[in-house]
Amino acid sequence: MAIELAPGAGDNGLATMMATMLSQNLADHPDRQPTFARLGGRVAIIAEDADVALTMRFTRGRAVVYDGIVGIPDVTVRGTAEVIGNLSLMETGRFGLPDPKGEVNRAMVDALRSGELRIYGLPAGLPLLAGLGAVLAID
Amino acid sequence: MGIKFPSAEWTAAFRDAINANDGYKKAGANWTHGKVAYVVEARPELGIDGDTAMVLDLHAGECREATMTDGETAEAADFVIRAEYERWKEVLSGEVDPTKAMMQNKLKLKKGHLPTIVKFVLASKELVRSATNIDTDYPA
Hints:
The structure holds 2 protein chains of 2 kinds.
Chain A lengths: L1 E4 L7 H16 L4 H6 L1 E8 L4 E8 L2 E6 L7 E5 L1 H6 L16 H12 L2 E4 L5 H11 L3
Parallel strand pairs in A: 1-4, 2-5
Antiparallel strand pairs in A: 2-3, 3-4, 5-6
Chain B lengths: L2 E2 L3 H12 L2 H6 L7 E6 L11 E8 L2 E9 H4 L4 E5 L1 H8 L5 H6 L4 E4 L2 H6 L1 H12 L3 E2 L3
């Protein structure tokens, strides 16, 4: 498993956080490595009020985190810094899918309804997003 | 006239403010992960001659001790967060959310397990909220 920051991404706090989260979560939970290895595609995350964005490119066991939007993302997640920060706290239920009863998950649904959180690229990008969520989840 | 930041007096007031914050007591109730250091980078023109740190001994929703020390000594803490003086001023006065500040690279986690910090994001916010209750004199 390889997780890298692209040149120039080291000054992007969100990119640094995401690369660190991926590395530390995979080290803490080796059972998530097969899920990580299956990820393929690009995910962009934009924290609008923090004026910061990143792109993660997954190629079967390797992830590169870029500053800003790079290439054409398969999934784009836009929201406030607070909502983006809570993405790792989403509760996972059966089959690795989000638990609909989870407190954070319900807040996410509210954020989706209010437009505070917007996700583009679904439903095609759902496996990529769900897989990423499973790797990043914090117990 | 408020309490000068950073100073030993402010650090003691921070401990008292944390312990008076019921929100932190609740959000940090499960924190058993050790000490957290806030390191203010040197700004000689403001009287901060060297890196200066506040080391918080946090445990189960309580701040058992808060000490002011130098940046090098603070490296022994379990979690070390560094920032320039102006960034701390923005965060500790409640002007900028700490999560947003980390995403913007204004606050940098130099040591410690990031997933643990993310898990306790609410506790981190309550720590900062505690600081806003201190009558603080920020130089310049």
